[in-house]
Amino acid sequence: MKKSKTILIGFGLLISMLIILPFLIPVHTYLQQAEKIGSEKLGVPVIIGSGHLTFLPSPRIVLNDISVGEHQEARFGRVVAIPTLSSLFSDTKIIDINISKPVIKQAVLDIVAALSAKKPESDAASSVHIHHININDLELVWPNSKYPLLNVEATLKDGSQLESAIVDTQDGKVKVNITPQDDEQLVVIDIDHWTSPIGLPMLIDTAKIEGHLKNSRLDIPKIDVALYNGKLTGNAVLNWQKGWKLNGKVKVEQLAVKGPSSLVSKSVYLSGNLFGNGDFSSSAKEAGGIADNFQANFKFKVNDGVLHGVDLVKMASLLVKQREKGGETQFEEFAGLLNIDGKQYHLKDIKISSGMLAASGQVKVMPNKELDGTVEVDLKSGMGLAAIPLDVSGTINEPTILPSKAAIAGAVAGTAILGPGIGTSLGVKAGSAVSKIIDFFGNKK
Question: Residue 410 belongs to what domain range?
Answer without folding.
Answer: 406-445
